[in-house]
Amino acid sequence: MRMTESFATTVAAVAPVVWLVGAVEYHQVAKRMKDGFEEGERLLAETKAELERASDAEVLAFEWTEQQRRTLRGRRELVPVFMVWSVITGSLLIAMIFALHWLAVGDEKNAASAEVTFCLASLVGSFALVSVMPVAAAQRQTDRVNKRRAVLRKEIGQLKKAARERSSS
Fold it and tell me: Is position 59 within any domain?
């Protein structure tokens, strides 16, 4: 593969648009991570304040609930997503620089295939990520909702069972 004017123009035009989408997603992931860690910090501060007022027996008996443990872990599952977006947005910037430099210099003899391959891989990777991430996020949210619903249905069933047992006694 060799760099051509039409390919360099396409990269220079498309990469900033995809980079912008990536930058917005990157910001959203960073915000969710920050919010998760701040929520964990608030939980720690509230728990510390409660334990300072508690008796020694209450302090010794204290244990974190599963929900509190999840809160304390923050949004660590987002770190790989954050890193992938970092790589993608960085590679798109480099691809734009390659394309714009080639367009500015227009050196047909120096149309390096490595730069073309990098530009192509950056664009294809970013298109894939921009396409897959919303679907993956929606699937993950659906799975969480379904798990919560299953737990609630089970608890409702237990409440009904207990009510039947009490009413038959």
Answer: yes
Nearest one of 99, 107, 77, 75 to 18, comparing CA atoms: 99
Contact by Cβ (8 Å): 94, 12: no
Amino acid identity of residue 61, one-letter, is A
The answer as to whether 65 is a domain residue is yes
Q: Is the residue at 58 inside a domain? A: yes
Structure tokens at 133: 């991430």
What does the pLDDT look like over 25-77, one tens digit per residue? 888 888 888 888 899 899 999 999 999 998 888 888 888 888 888 888 777 77
Number of structural domains, the chain?
1
**pTM exceeds cut of 0.85:** no
Q: In the numeric block, which tokens belong to residue 47? A: 């728990």
Domain that holds residue 81: 5-124
Quote the radius of gyration of the chain (alpha carbons, Å). Answer: 26
111 CA to centre of own chain? 37
